[in-house]
UniProtKB/TrEMBL annotation:
Protein's UniProt name: flavonoid 3',5'-hydroxylase
Metabolic or biological pathway, per its Swiss-Prot or TrEMBL entry: Pigment biosynthesis; anthocyanin biosynthesis
Its EC number(s): 1.14.14.81
Entry-linked InterPro entries: Cyt_P450, Cyt_P450_CS, Cyt_P450_E_grp-I, Cyt_P450_sf
A Pfam family recorded for this sequence: p450
Top-rank lineage group of the source organism: Eukaryota
Length: 508
């Protein structure tokens, strides 16, 4: 009996010591570990997901005004940190770039991008490096862009001829359809050696609709991505739509791929991008590209290469229709530098600072990817004195940075002049100035940054120089946004154009 009492006393003492030591250790750890960034509490189970609404970039920008530049949200079972100022973006995309160099798993990567076998969603590693290297060397890099200058010139010539025909018929030009048709053919000539659309019509418009659907669905905050245990239920129907769209894209890409392989003998000595990729499927690290990797790369180049640039150009033209004085000043600059007897050439752009300012202002106010493509932390880290756990998703609110009154004077105004003098004159959109990062920054900056800037400046400059622009009679300009991976206009821009150059300037 005495032994039992002794044992009970010892066990009780041990339990008390365990609880005290556990409490002390927990308290010490709590004191030594910085707090999570501030953020909204959210709802039980689903967290902050319902707070994002239909325009997440706007909702997150409003939250940042309350919670600060680095904000933490519990999204289902996942954590997400949002950077909303240039300094916060720099901390994640420059200082901690390597730690945030991967993408989180998501339905878009799985169902649209061949289970992340592409360049956009691939893990940072040998396969991603090989895909990026081949794309830069033969399509997206500086030398490659120079090599296909003539392709852009010819395809843009076809486009302005079609616009002249619409002008003669007094028909409005639907800007995004026209741009997608021209850009898809430019990219097709480089990748496949031929135009993918012979005429503008139902086939090219269907492709445009597919690209917009891809960018829209890939931009959704899908509940299944944040609560994996219920992903199979597909509560929003997003994954069903993605699977259907993937089948359509895969059929198109497979057809392109097979036709290209069947005509390889015709291109001996004059290879296109796909020929070069096929010939360099292996790298020194033992990585080999599969046919699926290559189809996924084609999907990246065609979708991102057309939709992001065309949306910026469309927003730019809409802003000039809203502000005719900007269009007038652009015309005056171009008439002085180029005249009206020939088309604008890419070599003219460096002599057109106001055109370049218009493009920068569009990148600022209407970034093509309002929330930079998500990244995820490989290890726990600290930012601004806050603790960021491992596997935390990162969103950089590029849209909010572009409209931050602490960074930009009168940010809601479209004022290209802000880039002509003063502190903003040397700001560049290529990822080094975090006040203006329309393509992101760091290791995972958009691979097509150079191409995007060239296409926007050259195509927008040509459209402005070649035509006078006006809205159809009785039509009001709608400037509402439609959220997606790329920021579209809710109502596509349709405008009346009238040629302003000598007739010989429109001959291809």
């Amino acid at each position: 009996m005495a032994l039992d009492t002794f044992l009970l006393r010892e066990l009780a003492a041990a339990a008390v010591l365990f609880l005290i030591s556990h409490y002390l250790i927990h308290s010490l750890l709590k004191k030594s570990t910085p707090p999570l960034p501030p953020g909204p509490k959210g709802w039980p189970f689903v967290g902050a997901l319902p707070l994002l609404g239909t325009m997440p970039h706007v909702a997150l920008a409003q939250m940042a005004k309350k919670y600060g530049p680095v904000m933490y949200l519990k999204m289902g079972t996942c954590g997400m940190v949002v950077a909303s100022t240039p300094d916060a973006a720099r901390a994640f995309l420059k200082t901690l770039d390597l730690n945030f160099s991967n993408r989180p798993p998501n339905a878009g990567a799985t169902h649209l991008a061949y289970n992340a076998q592409d360049m956009v969603f691939a893990d940072y590693g040998p396969r991603w490096k090989l895909l990026r290297k081949l794309s830069n060397l033969h399509m997206l890099g500086g030398k490659a862009l120079e090599d296909w200058t003539q392709v852009r010139t010819v395809e843009l010539g076809h486009m302005i001829q079609a616009m002249c025909e619409a002008s003669r018929a007094k028909e409005p030009v639907v800007v995004p359809e026209m741009l997608t048709y021209a850009m898809a053919n430019m990219i097709g000539k480089v990748i496949l050696g031929h135009r993918v659309f012979v005429t503008q019509g139902s086939e090219s418009n269907e492709f445009k609709d597919m690209v917009v659907e891809l960018m829209t669905s890939a931009g959704y905050f899908n509940i299944g991505d944040f609560i994996p245990s219920i992903a199979w239920m597909d509560l929003q129907g997003i994954e069903r739509g993605m699977k259907k769209l993937h089948k359509r894209f895969d059929a198109l890409l497979t057809k392109m791929f097979e036709e290209h392989m069947a005509t390889a003998h015709e291109r001996k000595g004059n290879p296109d991008l796909l020929d070069i990729v096929m010939a360099n499927r292996d790298n020194s690290e033992g990585e080999r590209l599969t046919t699926t990797n290559i189809k996924a790369l084609l999907l990246n180049l065609f979708s991102a290469g057309t939709d992001t640039s065309s949306s910026i150009i469309e927003w730019s033209l809409a802003e000039m229709l809203k502000n005719p004085s900007i269009l007038k000043r652009a015309h005056e600059e171009m008439d002085q530098v180029i005249g009206r007897n020939r088309r604008l050439e890419e070599s003219d752009i460096k002599k057109l600072p106001y055109l370049q300012a218009i493009c920068k202002e569009s990148f600022r106010k209407h970034p093509s990817t309002p929330l930079n493509l998500p990244r995820v932390s490989s290890q726990a880290c600290q930012v601004n004195g806050y603790y960021i756990p491992k596997d935390t998703r990162l969103s950089v609110n590029i849209w909010a940075i572009g409209r931050d009154p602490e960074v930009w004077e009168n940010p809601l105004d479209f004022t290209p002049e802000r880039f002509l003098s003063g502190k903003n004159a040397k700001i560049d959109p290529r990822g080094n100035d975090f006040e203006l990062i329309p393509f992101g920054a760091g290791r995972r900056i958009c691979a097509g940054t150079r191409m995007g800037i060239v296409l926007v400046e050259y195509i927008l400059g040509t459209l402005v120089h070649s035509f006078d622009w006006s809205l159809p009679h009785g039509v009001k300009l709608n400037m509402d946004e439609a959220f997606g991976l790329a920021l579209q206009k809710a109502v596509p821009l349709a405008a009346i154009v009238s040629p302003r150059l000598a007739p010989t300037a429109y001959v291809v």
